[in-house]
Amino acid sequence: MNIEDLFTAVDRIGENGNKISNIFRLGDRYTYDFNHCTSAKGWEQYDTDQDDWYFGVWVHKAKKLILTYAEGDLALSSCGTAKIFNLEIAAMNKFYGQGKICTVVGKDGCTTFHQDRMEFVIKGAS
After folding, report:
1. Closest Cα to residue 25, out of 83, 89, 87, 69?
2. Run of H or E residues at 104
3. Domains of the chain, earliest start first
4. Hey, what long-range contacts does 65-74 have (CB within 8 A, 24 or more apart)?
5. Which of the 8 DSSP states describes residue 16?
6. What's the rounded Cα separation, in Å, for the pair 33 and 43?
7. What's the pLDDT tens digit per position in 70-125?
8. Please, what sign has the CA dihedral across residues 71, 102, 88, 7?
9. What pTM value is reported for the model?
């Protein structure tokens, strides 16, 4: 099953022109990490400092979809064009800040790795 099959209606239009659908599903974000939004299905995790069992964000670049899970609330943002998708990614980058992947502690100190958010942008979109 594709995650977008769970959504039946567009609830609102976002400020960038994306179509946003909402549903409520009990559970936790791991259902989406390991079932619905896997890399094998074309999804990538969008790292935030809020990631936890009750919150997560995933991006499907080829389908121009963004899924947010927050305490059972699912919001699917369908971006009809690459331009709208890139505007949404830019807004997310501004809102969430740097996506911290991990901090490594070694004998020379700490190094923090951040997600390269440019990997989500669709190149050549104007």
Report:
1. 69
2. strand 100-106
3. 3-120 (3.30.310)
4. 65/3, 65/4, 66/18, 66/92, 67/3, 67/32, 67/37, 67/43, 69/29, 69/32, 72/24, 72/25, 72/26, 72/27, 73/22, 73/23, 73/24, 74/6, 74/7, 74/22, 74/23, 74/24, 74/25
5. T
6. 9
7. 999 999 999 999 999 999 999 999 998 887 777 788 888 888 887 888 899 999 87
8. negative
9. 0.88
The CA distance from 77 to 40, in Å, is 20
**Model pLDDT for residues 36-81, shown as the tens digit of each residue:** 999 999 999 999 988 999 999 999 999 999 999 999 999 999 999 9
Helix, strand, coil % in the chain, rounded to nearest 5: 25, 35, 40
Distance (Å, whole) CA 38 – CA 89: 19
Measuring CA to CA, how many Å separate 101 from each of 46, 65, 77, 106, 112? 10, 22, 24, 16, 8
